[in-house]
């Protein structure tokens, strides 16, 4: 399980565990020099303490092991005091211990811990509780995370320093300037983005529209663990999909017919196994992956590089409406924002952060989908690639990833062996029409594009006879027509 919030639910039954070797995690103190921060708080285990489960910014790379017990310390509040002459000044209260926690699960860069006791309500972002999913948000600029001058890193710095978005928004610009720079601090103080915040809050009143902040209970745990998680997500559609296990299926916009077929087939089969497919709503592989997943309850999540009220490319408008109705669309960009080149690498980092793994179906050597794959590798996620023909320029990016350590996959079973099978009912059998009776023609085609006239010469048939057979096969989805009178045989899962 990758989502802590989904590990234990109120009402779960307890039964005898299967016979196995249990690891005894004896509580012990860490090294004196070991320091870290709480980066997320989850409230999924009711009644364990004031807070329940937390995520730490320390992992196996920092020599963290299950069983370590840390003390929780919070920064003292800043108060205003007056001297005998009536002059006021600010004073920092001393740091105080707020409780302790017990590490029970460790990953490479992050670990999870259970709060053993919590004696004081912390105002620090390192231990502040997340909001409930349906709680109304204040209209402060920092809370909405809507100021492009601050950005994800600046937002987290403000929360870390002031303890809450509201406190950061109320702070003096001299205090925030050291963290986010003068221009952003002055904009924060002046409420420069108040209009866009109000527009976002009004938009969120519409059916199916949501604003999700990094402090919310249902902010995706996988994304919160990634580097620079967006402080605010605009969401349209089925918000509950954020709690599901996701797999990224990405690739080239200029995909071949075979590549798009592979993307749709793999996405459909993996969604049938319970994975929610996440992609970027671009042309080519992305669109095919969304199409394949929409037929299943696990459905699909589209992360876009524009404001959520825009569709890019416009040719995917109908698909976007279907995703919003049956799946979920996400964006970190303000309403009305157009498709700028720098937006798409930022979108790709969200795709990589949301997913347990990343499957690259077909990609050229300069494809933007390789950014998603690299980011997934950096976040310690499984990366897989489907190989292609050495003559296909759209396969060279996949081949490069495989050389760099990505898992070569040829089937859905290969993918499931890599990322794990979810506890879901077996997928229904895929019923396909019988292949038209033209085995000599298909055998003669091989798997590379071929001219119809060349097939006619090989088989001893007239061009008219070959074109008639190819048309029948194309209608059955067995071959694809390419420019220049060429045809290519399509494989099926």
Automatic annotation (TrEMBL):
- Which residue ranges does the record annotate as region Disordered? 124-146
Q: Which residues cross the membrane?
A: none
Residue span(s) of domain Smf/DprA SLOG: 211-419
> Which BP terms from GO are recorded?
DNA-mediated transformation
Domain DprA winged helix residues, every copy: 425-485
Known Pfam families for this protein?
A: DNA_processg_A (PF02481), WHD_DprA (PF17782)
- Annotated family: Belongs to the DprA/Smf family.
Q: What is this protein called?
A: DNA protecting protein DprA
Q: Which species is this record about?
A: Chromobacterium violaceum
């Amino acid at each position: 399980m990758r989502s802590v919030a989904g590990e234990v639910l109120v009402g779960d039954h307890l039964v005898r565990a299967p016979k196995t070797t249990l690891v005894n995690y004896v509580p012990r103190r860490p090294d004196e020099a070991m320091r870290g921060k709480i980066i997320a708080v989850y409230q999924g285990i009711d009644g364990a303490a004031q807070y329940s489960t937390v995520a730490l910014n320390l992992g196996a790379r920092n020599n963290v092991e299950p069983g370590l017990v840390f003390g929780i310390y919070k920064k003292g509040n800043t108060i205003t005091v007056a001297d005998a002459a009536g002059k006021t000044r600010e004073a920092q209260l001393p740091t105080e211990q707020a409780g302790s926690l017990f590490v029970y699960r460790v990953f490479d860069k992050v670990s999870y811990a259970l709060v053993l006791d919590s004696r004081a309500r912390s105002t620090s972002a390192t231990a502040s509780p997340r909001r409930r999913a349906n709680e109304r948000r204040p209209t402060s600029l920092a809370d909405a995370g809507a100021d492009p001058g601050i950005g994800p890193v600046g937002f987290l710095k403000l929360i870390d320093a002031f303890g809450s978005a509201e406190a950061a928004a109320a702070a003096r610009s001299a205090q925030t300037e050291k963290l986010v720079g003068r221009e952003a601090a002055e904009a924060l103080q002046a409420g420069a983005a108040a209009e866009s915040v109000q527009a976002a809050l009004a938009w969120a009143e519409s059916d199916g529209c949501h604003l999700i902040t990094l402090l919310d209970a249902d902010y995706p745990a996988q994304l919160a663990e990634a580097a620079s998680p967006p402080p605010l997500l605009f969401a349209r559609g089925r918000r509950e999909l954020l709690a599901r296990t996701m797999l990224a299926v990405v690739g080239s916009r200029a995909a071949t017919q075979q590549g798009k077929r592979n993307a749709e087939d793999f996405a459909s089969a993996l969604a049938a196994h319970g994975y929610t497919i996440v992609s970027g709503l671009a042309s080519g592989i992305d669109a095919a992956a969304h199409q394949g997943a929409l037929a299943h309850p696990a459905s699909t999540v589209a992360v876009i590089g524009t404001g959520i009220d825009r569709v890019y490319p416009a040719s995917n408008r109908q698909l976007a409406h279907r995703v919003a109705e049956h799946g979920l669309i996400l964006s970190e960009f303000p309403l009305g924002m157009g498709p700028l080149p720098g937006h798409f690498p930022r979108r790709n980092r969200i795709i990589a952060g949301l997913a347990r793994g990343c499957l690259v179906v077909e990609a050229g050597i300069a494809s933007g989908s390789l950014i998603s794959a690299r980011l997934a590798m950096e976040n310690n996620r499984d990366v897989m690639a489907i190989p292609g023909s050495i003559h296909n320029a759209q396969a060279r990016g996949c081949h490069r990833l495989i050389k760099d350590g990505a898992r070569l996959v040829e089937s859905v079973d290969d993918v499931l062996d890599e990322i794990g099978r979810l506890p879901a009912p077996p997928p229904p059998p895929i019923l396909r029409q019988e292949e038209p009776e033209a085995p000599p023609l298909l055998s003669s085609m091989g798997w590379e594009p071929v001219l119809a006239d060349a097939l006619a010469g090989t088989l001893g048939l007239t061009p008219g006879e070959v074109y008639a057979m190819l048309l029948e096969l194309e209608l059955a989805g067995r071959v694809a027509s390419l420019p220049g009178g060429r045809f290519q045989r399509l494989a099926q899962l």
